[in-house]
Each structure stands twice: as C-alpha cells, then as structure tokens.
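Need tokens for this chain, all 249 residues.
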Amino acid sequence: MKAVFDRPASLTDEPFPYCPGCGHGIVHEIVAECLDETGLTDRCILVSTIGCTVRCWRNFDVDVVQGAHGRGLAVATAVKTAHPDAFVLTYQGDGDLAAIGLSETVHAAARGEAVTVVFANNAVYGATGGQMAPTTLMGQCVSTCLEGRDPQNGGYPIRMCELLATLPAPAYLARGSVDSPANRRKAKALVTKAFRAQMEQGVFSLVEILSPCPVNLKMSPPDALRWVRDEMIPFYPLGEYKLPPGEQL
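Here are the structure tokens for all 249 residues:
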C-alpha cells in the first residue's frame, strides 16, 4: 500500500507528551514540515523554554538549547550572535512569551534580531493549571478568575502581533490557527514565510498560532476547536501584520 502521509523527518519518533486534543501536536507537525521543506533542519538551533512548550526538545530532531522561563529570545539572541549562519528558532507559549518574557520579546523585535518565533496561543496557562494568561479573553473563566476575566481586576488581553507591529525595526509578523484543516494549511504557509524572512532577509519573524487547550478549557477536543474558531479568532484576527522589507500589506 502506498503511504500518503508520513512523519516529517524533522520529528523524532518520541510520542507527543501533550494532553488529548492539545494543539501543540499540530503546531509541531507544521514546524517540522516547514523545516524539512526549507532544508533548514541541519542548520536549526531550537530554543525551548518553560511551560507546555518545554517538552518540545524531545520531539524535534535538531540541536536544542534550554532557556529559563520567559528568556527564550534572550537565549536566541545569544545563539544567533555566536552562530550567525544558524537558523535560530524559539517555540513558546503565551504565558512564557507574553507574560514573564514580554520584555525579551519586545526588545528582540525592537532590535530586529534575525531569529524566528513560533508562538502558540491557547489563551491560558496550560502547564501550571489553567490560570489567567496575558491572552485570556474578556469574560473567559479560568482557575484564577472563576467568574470570567474582568478588566477592572484582570486588565485586557494583549494582542502580540498588533503590539509588535508598532515597532519600526523590519520584521515579519503573522497570526494563524489550527482550528480547521484549511487554517492549518494557511498557518503552515505563514511559518514557511517566517523561516525565509530570517534566512533570506535577516529580519525578526514571529508567527502566532491559535491553539486549543481542551483540559484547561474544560471542553472536549472538538468543542475546544470550535471555541478557538468562534471566540479566539474574532478577537485575534488571522493574517499578516507586518511584512519584510520590499513587501506591502
């Protein structure tokens, strides 16, 4: 029988360590396919940080550096400085990148560091029990705000692509989703473009990918996917927010 699909070469045969229905497995597959198709696997140095994403080191067949919580882009900056010809990638969640790591994220983008970020946004702290994250939606019920996020005590969600797009340094910024096969294909195209923005144009690139967390949303996997589509996408619109030099939105 002819094989139609197979595991991307850039993925190991380690089982995914994530909860049933978690979107990280889909995002991992996208990243690995893009590494294979751009020929960057052997040049890739992946920076793994803390949170659900810390587990990605065992699933990618690339060199990996472990960073402290939120310090992924500080570590990536050091790695790129030491190895300017390498393809430097961070894989980060919303609590890691947009909370404790917000300063590192903003300043790496402001400096125009030639590194790439794949940012999985599931609107909640996944690894530590479902607390409110910087990306938690208004009215969303999580373990630290059982009645729903209220701006009076929880502030407003942060839209990272829109925030970083205000910075003058050249960059590629985009947002995709894995709520459907069609959006998964579009997200892959965005990741491929981000990889090329680093290697061909030497600019900072970030792709935010909206992803379900069924366990902390307290939903079935199909319902969590529908929640991403019906609740997250209207607040976090998909598309490109900043293009590399020479391109226009």
